[in-house]
Amino acid sequence: MPRSARLVCCCLIACMAFALYVSHPAMADVAQQKRLAVWMWGSTVRSQGAEAIAKKLADERVTDVILLVRGTSGKAEYASAIAPPAEAGKDALGDIIAACRPLGIRVHAWFVFNQDKAYTDAHPEDRIWHHGKANTEFKPYEIDDGKVCPASAAHLEYTNSLIREVMEKYSVDGIHLDYIRYGHMVYCFCPAHIEKATKLGINVDKVREAMFQTLYASPANPNHLFEAYAAGEPDVVAWVNMRQAEVREAAASMRAAAKSINPNVVFSASLMPEGAIDESKPFAMCHYGQSYDDAGKLYDFVCPMAYHIDYSKPAEWVGDITRGTVQAVGDVPIYIGLQAYPDKCTYDELKAAALAGLDAGAAGVALFRFGTMTGPRWAAIKDVMEGTK
Questions:
Q1: Which of 77, 182, 191, 237 is most buried as measured by Cβ atoms within 10 A of its Cβ?
Q2: Helix ranges restricted to H, the chain
Q3: What is the dihedral of CA 180, 181, 182, 184, to 10 degrees?
């Protein structure tokens, strides 16, 4: 065969191969399209089977699956030598990687940070402490539901050991953090925290008084703490800044743990939505200690959880959260978190929310969660992602 003919033949074969590559939904060049991620529980893999799930993901053109590998129970959805298993002999992470990798679907290992019942049962000294209520004479008390003090160095190192274990055992594409925040303004008033704050020059009694006026006084002013923070009250600001630093430093430590094994691993997080909007930033900082400005320096993509139905907001609010996130994190990609539950999440609701986020600058959407996706919900996302309006 003449050289020119061979070149033509090779080109034809290459074109045919490329056509076959992109003909499968999951194999399409996602650089030219929006990302479609789904959060998924490990129990879903165990109950439905990884192969069936992967086929469904590919059929629906999902690009990323975020699999829960350490949830609030503290039990591992992978073959861990450190954490107790969710189910003996089961390896949801290994199974989903094996099923998704040939289809070009990225797999992110999802870690809940500030709640681990297995850990706090073994290490009660690291339990989180509540501010105190009337029935405790407003004295702080520890919580026994698995919540961990975010400032615990021991728990952070334990979590880092799990991240390193996953990174060393599995070829994950990403590490995804959830609950990388405080859960409420009432945490944490453990003895170690009070001692730390006092050493930083914070008058903890003034902070507790502000908390009392916000939650427990009669009558209470539900905005008192936020107003004190916004007005620059020194002890309140210093307390909030201390909590923010703890959240930021924990995330940075986990990022370093993951990147030390694979510098190219994608490091991401779910974020509470209030911090994206100026008017609710004092609320977000006082409650969560989670800063969107920090997130822009820590993560390779972020997922603001813009669950508009839970917040009794219109779908357009998802666009507001996205625009605020764009301003805060700059070029960091945003996979806007969308609520795929409850029954009120209809085709029209989900479609409107997805369009609002994408039109406002999101690089993709993240659906919570695979187990609640129905035919109409998949159809809504498909119509949005394919440009059918």
A1: 77
A2: 3-23, 42-48, 50-59, 92-100, 117-122, 153-169, 191-199, 204-215, 224-230, 234-261, 281-288, 292-298, 316-329, 347-359, 375-385
A3: -120
CA distances from 345 to 41, 83, 357, 367 (A): 20, 36, 16, 12
Question: Using alpha carbons only, what angle is made at residue 56 by residues 53 and 58, rounded to the nearest 5 degrees?
Answer: 110
Instruction: Give the pairing type, strands 129-130 and 141-142.
Output: antiparallel
Amino acid at site 105: I
**Sign of dihedral through CA atoms 232, 233, 235, 236?**
negative
Contact 32/353 with Cβ under 8 angstroms? no
SS3 383: helix
pTM, entire model: 0.91
Distance of CA 261 to the CA centre of its chain: 21
Residue 11 has pLDDT above 70, yes or no: no
- The token pair that represents 229 in the structure block: 């923070």
The one-letter amino acid at 342: P
Number of residues assigned to the chain: 389
Three state DSSP letters for 14-82 = HHHHHHHHHHCHHHCCHHHCCEEEEEECHHHHHHHCHHHHHHHHHHCCCCEEEEEEECCCCCECCCCCC
Q: Are the CB atoms for 259 and 265 separated by under 8 Å?
A: yes
What token pair was written down for 294? 């920090």
Rounded distance, CA 363 to CA 382, Å?
A: 16
pLDDT digits (tens, 9 = 90+) for 75-126: 999 999 999 999 999 999 999 999 999 999 999 999 999 999 999 999 999 9
> Can you state the angle between helices 153-169 and 234-261, rounded to 10 degrees?
30
